[in-house]
């Protein structure tokens, strides 16, 4: 077995061992205590029992199950995957339906941001005059949290779903714009001089020289933008409600179903990893060796 393959197998084995260790610790930590196994109110003093009865919390009421165990998470995974396309009303949609709404919002916002950021980044990267003119606006707008735009979006657009798309557009715009401008401005001068010597037109120069040279940097900006967009969509959907994986998390929290909340967190992480791998593969396709 060669060294890279051996390293890959060892890293996979170590990851598996860490996962098993995490599950074992989780299982032990979520086991009910001896006091919790006793009759309701057994661990309370007489004053606490009387106070609980005054508040209407009878001691015959069973205690909360607490933090879910790994087995309960496994059951929640099976329950949610049994009917992922269920649509039985506003508060009863399957995980695939919620995930589809989130991916649609991210796709729309990210796509519109790419249509704006890539051409504008080209212009900024190719023209020092445009760069100096737009730089103050970029430096002021870039640090603003995307969620800070949500009240203005809701007031102006008056549609919660489209407001979510707008927030994704804002958060995806800056990484793509700045990386495109940097990639275009960093194209080697020798290549540009050769193209000018051959009297290549500006359009052909942009598409056949600058774009291939800047493509890895542009894809890096897209990869960062997609990562931020997937982070922000969860928070945005918690605010606007209705549909989406963020609303699913908030709705299950209101239902006090921590098992479903943890299941949704795992889904968010897995989808985020797949999106990142997709852009990493695209980035690898356009990367070249000098």
TrEMBL record:
<protein>
    <submittedName>
        <fullName>Nitrate ABC transporter permease</fullName>
    </submittedName>
</protein>
<dbReference type="GO" id="GO:0005886">
    <property type="term" value="C:plasma membrane"/>
</dbReference>
<dbReference type="GO" id="GO:0015112">
    <property type="term" value="F:nitrate transmembrane transporter activity"/>
</dbReference>
<feature type="transmembrane region" description="Helical">
    <location>
        <begin position="256"/>
        <end position="275"/>
    </location>
</feature>
<keyword id="KW-0406">Ion transport</keyword>
<dbReference type="InterPro" id="IPR000515">
    <property type="entry name" value="MetI-like"/>
</dbReference>
<keyword id="KW-1003">Cell membrane</keyword>
<feature type="transmembrane region" description="Helical">
    <location>
        <begin position="228"/>
        <end position="250"/>
    </location>
</feature>
<feature type="transmembrane region" description="Helical">
    <location>
        <begin position="152"/>
        <end position="177"/>
    </location>
</feature>
<feature type="transmembrane region" description="Helical">
    <location>
        <begin position="203"/>
        <end position="221"/>
    </location>
</feature>
<dbReference type="InterPro" id="IPR035906">
    <property type="entry name" value="MetI-like_sf"/>
</dbReference>
<dbReference type="Pfam" id="PF00528">
    <property type="entry name" value="BPD_transp_1"/>
</dbReference>
<keyword id="KW-0813">Transport</keyword>
<dbReference type="InterPro" id="IPR005889">
    <property type="entry name" value="NtrB"/>
</dbReference>
<keyword id="KW-0812">Transmembrane</keyword>
<dbReference type="GO" id="GO:0006811">
    <property type="term" value="P:monoatomic ion transport"/>
</dbReference>
<keyword id="KW-1133">Transmembrane helix</keyword>
<keyword id="KW-0472">Membrane</keyword>
<feature type="transmembrane region" description="Helical">
    <location>
        <begin position="108"/>
        <end position="131"/>
    </location>
</feature>
<dbReference type="GO" id="GO:0042918">
    <property type="term" value="P:alkanesulfonate transmembrane transport"/>
</dbReference>
<feature type="domain" description="ABC transmembrane type-1">
    <location>
        <begin position="99"/>
        <end position="279"/>
    </location>
</feature>
<keyword id="KW-0997">Cell inner membrane</keyword>
<comment type="similarity">
    <text>Belongs to the binding-protein-dependent transport system permease family.</text>
</comment>
């Amino acid at each position: 077995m060669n060294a890279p393959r051996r390293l890959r197998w060892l890293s996979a084995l170590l990851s598996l061992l860490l996962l098993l260790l995490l599950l074992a610790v989780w299982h032990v930590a979520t086991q009910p205590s001896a006091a919790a196994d006793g009759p309701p109110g057994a661990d309370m003093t007489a004053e606490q029992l009387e106070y609980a009865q005054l508040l209407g919390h009878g001691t015959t009421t069973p205690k909360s199950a607490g933090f879910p165990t790994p087995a309960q998470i496994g059951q929640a995974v099976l329950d949610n995957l049994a009917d992922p396309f269920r649509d039985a009303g506003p508060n009863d949609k399957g995980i695939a339906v919620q995930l589809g709404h989130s991916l649609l919002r991210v796709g729309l916002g990210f796509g519109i941001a790419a249509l704006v950021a890539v051409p504008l980044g080209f212009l900024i990267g190719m023209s020092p005059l445009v760069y100096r003119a737009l730089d103050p606006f970029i430096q002021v707008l870039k640090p603003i949290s995307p969620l800070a735009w949500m009240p203005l979006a809701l007031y102006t657009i008056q549609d919660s779903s489209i407001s979510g798309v707008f927030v994704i557009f804002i958060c995806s715009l800056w990484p793509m714009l700045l990386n495109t401008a940097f990639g275009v401005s960093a194209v080697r001068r020798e290549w540009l001089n050769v193209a000018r010597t051959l009297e290549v037109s500006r359009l052909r120069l942009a598409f056949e020289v600058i774009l291939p040279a800047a493509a890895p940097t542009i894809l890096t900006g897209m990869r960062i933008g997609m990562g931020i967009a997937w982070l922000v969509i969860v928070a945005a959907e918690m605010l606007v409600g209705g549909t989406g994986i963020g609303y699913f998390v908030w709705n299950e929290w209101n239902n006090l179903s921590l098992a479903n909340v943890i299941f949704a967190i795992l889904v968010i992480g897995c989808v985020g990893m797949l999106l990142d791998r997709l852009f990493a593969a695209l980035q690898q396709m356009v990367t070249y060796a000098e």
